[in-house]
Amino acid sequence: MGAAISGLLLHIGDRLGLYKAMAGAGPITSATLAARTGTTERYVREWLGNQAAVSYVVYNSVHGTFELPAEQAMVVANEDSPVFLGGAFESIAACYADHDILVDAFRTGAWVGWQEHYDRLFSGVLWLFRPGYAAHLVDEWLPALDGVVEKLRAGASVADVGCGLGASTIILAEAFRRSTFVGLDIHEP
Which DSSP category does 188 fall into? Predict the structure, then answer.
């Protein structure tokens, strides 16, 4: 139960910008963090208590301050970091919202199509995978495929089937401007 609620609180901290306000700020009080983020100090204090208990932030009992270490900031505050996990918690939240659909599928054996999920799943998946694609797709993964980079540089036609919201398609199109990219997905948005 502690892990489940801590995941929810991590997601809340991400959505409210609490981590971003802490990243690189050094030791900070709950009142200062609440003021910086336009949130209520009482809730921020309880949130920080949880974050300290699960070792996401460091608590200094002498000064009554909390600090987000740089290592944790890479995971919870820096959306450009290849290890950023904000999207994972957005996706998990969507799975809880899909509870009734999933229970029905267990009962009936019906297929649950990707497009039938709660909308936050799609934005969460995009948000989760885009940093990794940005960090690795063009410079590491594609060069591992014989001749692919050369074809893309020369100008190729590419169909990205099952592209989701298009994170990898857009990254490729920006990197290989001579090529044409079309993203296709059963989920219309």
Answer: -
**DSSP secondary structure letters along 52-81:** HHTTSSEEETTTTEEE--HHHHHHHT-TTS
Closest residue by Cα to residue 22 from 32, 9, 12: 32
Residue-number span of the structural domain to which 11 is assigned? 2-76
Q: How many domains does the chain have?
A: 2
Of 22, 34, 28, the closest CA to residue 65 belongs to 28
Asked, for residue 70, whether it belongs to a domain, the answer is yes
Give the predicted TM-score (pTM) of the model: 0.76
- Summarised one tens digit per residue, pLDDT across range 50-80 is 999 999 999 999 999 999 999 999 999 999 9
What is the reported pLDDT for 71?
95
Q: Across the chain, what does the average pLDDT equal?
A: 93
Tell me: do 59 and 125 sit in the same domain. no
Helix (H, G, I), strand (E, B) or coil at 176: coil
CA dist., res. 131 & res. 141, Å (int) = 14
